[in-house]
Design brief:
Helix content: over 70%
GO cellular component, one term: ATP-binding cassette (ABC) transporter complex
Number of strands: 0
Structural class: mainly alpha
Shape: elongated
Number of domains: 1
Organism: Micromonospora costi
Radius of gyration: 20 Å
Keywords: Antibiotic resistance, Cell membrane, Membrane, Transmembrane, Transmembrane helix, Transport
Number of helices: 11
Largest sheet: none
Protein name: Transport permease protein
Subcellular location: Cell membrane; Membrane
Length: about 270
Amino acid sequence: MSTLSLAPRRLRWAVSDTLVLTGRSMSHWARQPAELIIGLLFPVLMVLMFGYLFGGAIAVPGGGDYREFLLPGMFAMTMAFGVEASYAAVAADAARGVTDRFRSLPMARSAVVTGRALADLLHSAAGLAVMLACGWLVGWQWRNGLAHALAAVGLLLLLRVALIWVGIHLALVLRRPESVMVLQILVWPVGFTSNAFVAPQTMPGWLAPIAEWNPLSATVAACRELFGNPGWGGDSFAAQHAVALAVAWPVLLVAVFLPLSVRRYRQLSR
């Protein structure tokens, strides 16, 4: 049988194995609901803290309600914080030898990492739904119609897809669950050195360009534009092409880290 004729069978095999491993990850959430609930509620606490405790002291460039300015940023931050969960799950499996046992089974090599990625994306979609509901309850709303709102949600999930592969690759490299602290040291500065909470114009001159070109800032600015919420404006290239950059940055990250993750998984036993 030719390699070409085997391709559809291999694809079906890979998809089937991916769905099985996705179900495995979701069954863990069913057995440990407290961990799932805490993960969903943490971003809600962030919204309440920044929106109500600090919101009265922060002015939105050009005017507008700070909570409407804040919520798109919090949606993107929720996607960014999820990279820690991806890392922890993959690193735990690698440290306990689960990944090595998977490698010994007659299954598609890519299914372990793609199954984890799909499970994390479903978890993130649920978290984003909770955040959207929370935003609506505190007075946030989209103002440019449903089509633009769905496009913004798509950009948020695209960002999460990219960060899933970053987390998986780092976990396969380090293979130590306790090293998640290293990832937190990286994620939190990237998140706060963005336009999620304040406009780059309010930052020191040397920091503002870094915030504008932060991949997270591109998604936040694009979502504010699509949702019709107050934005930070500006005449820089990053400000004027936020939607294009919100697509380009995640696509670039996926193009780099997805093949690296699959390659690293295949090399684990060498």
